[in-house]
Every structure is written in C-alpha cells, then in structure tokens.
Amino acid sequence: MRLHFQEYRSDRAHAPRLIILHGLLGSSDNWHSLARRWSKEFYVYSLDARNHGRSPQSDEFNYDVMVEDLRQFMVAHHLNSVYLLGHSMGGKTAMQISFKYPELVAKLVVVDIAPKSYEAHHEHIFEALFSLDLQKYSNRKEVEHALMEPIPSHSTRQFLLKNLRRKNDGKYGWKMNLDVINRHYDEMNQSVEGIFPKPTLFIRGQKSDYILDSDIPQIRSLFPLAFVKTIAGAGHWVHADAPAAFADLVSEFLSSSGGRTK
Fold first, then answer.
1. 112 is a catalytic site residue
2. CA 44 to CA 67: how far, in whole Å?
3. Which portions of the chain are predicted below pLDDT 50?
4. How far is CA 45 from the centre of its chain?
5. Which of 179, 184, 215, 251 is catalytic?
6. Is the pTM value of this prediction over 0.85?
C-alpha cells in the first residue's frame, strides 16, 4: 500500500531521516508544526497510516500490515537505519517494525504507549462519532456542538474534527475509515513482543496512565537501551500539551551520541 506522507526537507547536507507515525484517529496533519521544527536538524517524513488521513483504505487493519506498509514506504524511498517516532498506535507500529526489522531503525522514540495490552477505552468516542449524521450539518461548528455532550474535552473534539472533510457532493464525511478502525479496535490494544537492542526513548505524560511505573521493567526487558522520560503537566497527547519540552527532548535524544538524555 502506498501511504500518503508529508515531507519536510532539511537544509543540512546528509541530514538523518526521521519518520513520524501518528496515533489512532490521527493523521500526519497533527504533527505539522513539530515536523517543521525538527526539519532544521532532520529530513522528516510524516505518514498517514492506512485507513487514516489521505492514505488508502482497506478492510485489513492490524500491526502486521501497518509494519509492512512502513517497510514498503522505506524501500520505495531508499531509506534505511532511520530515526523512528510513533505516538500511541503509531508507537506500537514503531515498536513492532523495530522488533521485526531492527536493521531499518537506528533510534526509536515511543510516545505514551507501552508494549503491553490495554483494555478498550475509546468506545465512547466511536459511539459519539457513529451517532452523527454528517449529512445534516452545514458547517464545522455544528458538528462540534453535536459532540460537546458525549465528548466534553475541547482538545479531544478539536483533534477528532481534523478528520472532517467535504465530499464531492458538498456534504461532510470522515477522512478515516471509521467502520474498519472500529471493527479492528481490539487488535490495536494487543501487546507487541520482541527485542530491540538499540537506543530507545519512551516519553510519557505526567497526567497520562498509559505508561505506569510498573510497566518500566517490561519496557527495559524488551528495550535494553531504553530511557523513560516524563513531561510534567502533559496528558496522553504529550506533543500537543507540551510541544516545546517534547520537541527539545526528542531532538536531544536523537542528536546525542548513544541516545543519552539529561
């Protein structure tokens, strides 16, 4: 599958390649500001996963096929030994390709997700999105208003509304393949297993419960060179809650010898 991507060219000669993988119900658009910032140091590719953003849609949706999508992208663009960053679902995809093809990844950044399995906790979001009859709304504000009661969080609503698009008939629709994503949601919550013996940075939000202290021993058993860093005041969308601190931490890790961080 040919994934849609956004490319941020660096002025630096021979700049290291950095690939960004977004989370569930996200897209490459969520990472535009950070990708531009990092392009001063790295040549950045920000990808849309299958069934998300402007990438093709498919009834197949699991980590195995997303790993193969990413591998094919790297082959098509003559990439190897890249820096790889993934948030949430993208973090598990990044972990899985690092286990399966460790030669393709020089350093790994995993954002607010552990390799463990998770209980389903997005059902209310899927229910809210499926409850909308997008055909009847004439503007984005009306859609947001309809989501206010089932999804009280303003930041979550804004994140989801980035998936809204105008179809050829002028009516609203979703960019993502909501039916397939929902159908395979349990597979997104499964654990991933393997060993990746290269520098790895796990970043978690202080207000998030996705990476607990009790998860750290498992992380270090699968990623022997792992660092775990916590960003104060941030939730699960660490990169949106504390973009400056997050960007600096990632840059420091990727630019340092051996992946050291302060």
1. no
2. 18
3. none
4. 13
5. 179
6. yes
